[in-house]
Amino acid sequence: MQDDLGQHKGYEYARTGNPTRTAMEQCLAELEGARYALGFASGMAAIATTMYLLKQGDHVVAGDDAYGGTYRLFTRVLSQYGLEFTFTDLTDLQKTKAALRPNTRMIWLETPTNPLLKIFDIAGIARLAAQMPTRPIVVVDNTFASPYLQQPLALGADLVVHSTTKYIGGHSDVIGGAVIMNDEELHRRLKFLQNAAGAVPGPHDAWLTLRGMKTLALRMDQHGRNALAVARFLEDHPQVTRVIYPGLESHPQHELAQKQMRNFGGMVSFEVQGGAEAARAVVTHTRLFALAESLGGVESLIEMPAAMTHLSVQGSPLEVPAGLIRLSVGIEDEQDLIEDLAMALAR
Ligand code: P1T
Prior knowledge:
This protein is α/β, with parallel strands linked by helices. The chain has 2 domains: 19-213, Aspartate Aminotransferase, domain 2 (3-Layer(aba) Sandwich); 216-345, Aspartate Aminotransferase, domain 1 (Alpha-Beta Complex), CATH 3.90.1150. It contains 12 helices and 12 strands. It has helices at residues 19-31, 43-51, 68-77, 93-99, 122-131, 146-149, 184-197, 203-213, 216-235, 254-260, 275-283, 334-346, and strands at residues 36-40, 59-63, 84-88, 104-110, 137-141, 159-163, 177-181, 240-244, 267-272, 290-291, 301-303, 325-328. Strands 1-7-6-5-4-2-3 form a 7-stranded mixed β-sheet, with helices on both faces. The protein has a 5-stranded mixed β-sheet with strand order 8-9-12-11-10. α1 packs parallel to α8. The longest helix has 20 residues, at 216-235. It is globular, with a radius of gyration of 20 Å. The relative contact order is 0.14. It binds ligand P1T.
């Protein structure tokens, strides 16, 4: 109810704002050490709304490994509205610089990336952007790290995006997204877009997300410990041909990950002898690791990106190996997880 025409009590309409969403947004901002956060109905809704900052003719440089849904939005939806995308290996700052054009308005990256767990140098990329006369906005999708492990704004990024469905929610029971920032002008524009486009979370989703965030630190510590143990186990397994985990000394950006992150997170990718067929046998024979899309919940999940989460990058420069297996290592007992994988690999 309003006191008078144009005089409301802080909340005029629930798409524009509601008190539970405000509490969630304040908590998200604090976790990222930021001034502002905006809640969305999903990670994709947060990403789509962020892209409304751009206009026809603008160019985006994006990392060459990313969530399949993000790639699909960029190439099959937004390209129809006159946005141009170049996907580049952002681990190479020379290549990144070479990809920038006079009309580049945004650099988009995940780190660690989904599903190849590449680590990009946020501070280095932000410095590069700052040197450009056009000052492209640097956006970091911080979903895989969570704000407990990595704070991109402190490293010079302009915007942080999250699928709060994942580690922030933490219990695989809510879909949500967020955009987080310090810049007042970006906040003003995105708050307008949040309301104008309307892809907002309901209060119950905001409440579940708030509830999940209370244990973020405890969960992330356990995810990191378990994932490192699982990665070491896989690295020593004779049937495993490749293990990708930023916490292993064999990871090409291990040192950068050490510098940029508190621990190395809960995601591990690997390949086995025998390719996609052998991989299929592994992902269908674990008992504790559930065969499922998504990640970041307390329970361990296993999947094959090429056939599941990353179907939309098939045949593109972002294509992932057909036999790649991705683990979202949960917070269960470390030995139980290792035994489960040992059993599935022995079949
Ligand atoms: O699912 P949604 O909340 O809309 O979030 C999309 C999204 C955005 N960014 C990253 C890095 C993501 O991994 C995701 C969603 N990813 C999965 C569902 C998955 O299994 O990889």
